[in-house]
Design goal:
Largest sheet: 9 strands, antiparallel
CATH class: Mainly Beta
Radius of gyration: 17 Å
Order of helices and strands: HEEEEEEEEHEEEEEH
Number of helices: 3
Helix content: 10-25%
Number of strands: 13
CATH architecture: Distorted Sandwich
Length: about 180
């Protein structure tokens, strides 16, 4: 079961769901639209020869921060990380991040596999943006990029995220900063 717009609004007002900033005009019948932020991480292809997740060999990432009036050109076949402008989470609900059908129809994926936000995880979510089209897609900070759905839990979870997740924006920034210090 997923929350309706009425129940999402009630849960936000009661403090059971955090959505900052909350804008009632972005409520859909059973979801809430989130906006694209200004921060992106792209792979530095010139210094990354391969990725081996088993050996924890990851590519060098470059952080790009745009002004609100700037755009990001996402070229075909490229995958980047972009962050939501909205900060959200809940101790009481499982949150799922879904693409918007209007963007999916033009070939924009907003997540490859990381669609779930577990209870207790509060964040500006990393979006795995990928252009499956054969022409570039223009991304604007502040555009509606994805939608959230909220599912109640059958019982309180035994485990709960209480700290920033290991793949969060803060840790990626820390990873990039650490790499720069080593040079």
């Amino acid at each position: 079961m997923m929350l309706s717009d009425v129940d999402i609004k009630k849960a936000v007002k009661a403090g059971a769901i955090t959505l900052k900033p909350f804008d009632e005009s972005r409520l859909q019948p059973a979801s809430y639209d989130i906006l694209l932020g200004n921060t992106f991480f792209v792979t530095d292809a010139h210094s990354s020869s391969f990725i081996d997740p088993v050996k924890k060999i990851y590519p060098k990432m470059i952080e790009i921060t745009l002004k609100n009036s700037d755009v990001f050109v996402l070229h075909p076949g490229i995958s980047i990380l972009g962050y939501s402008r909205d900060f959200f989470g809940s101790d009481n609900y499982l949150i799922e991040v879904n693409g918007k059908s209007s963007l999916a129809r033009i070939g924009l994926l907003v997540h490859n596999s990381a669609a779930l936000v577990n209870p207790g995880h509060f964040l500006n979510i990393a979006l795995e943006l990928c252009n499956l089209n054969n022409v570039p897609i223009i991304l604007h900070p502040g555009m509606a990029i994805a939608q959230l759905t909220f599912s109640p839990l059958s019982s309180p979870p035994k485990q709960n995220y209480k700290e920033v997740g290991r793949y969060s924006k803060n840790n990626i920034k820390g990873y990039v900063a650490a790499k720069k210090r080593k040079k």
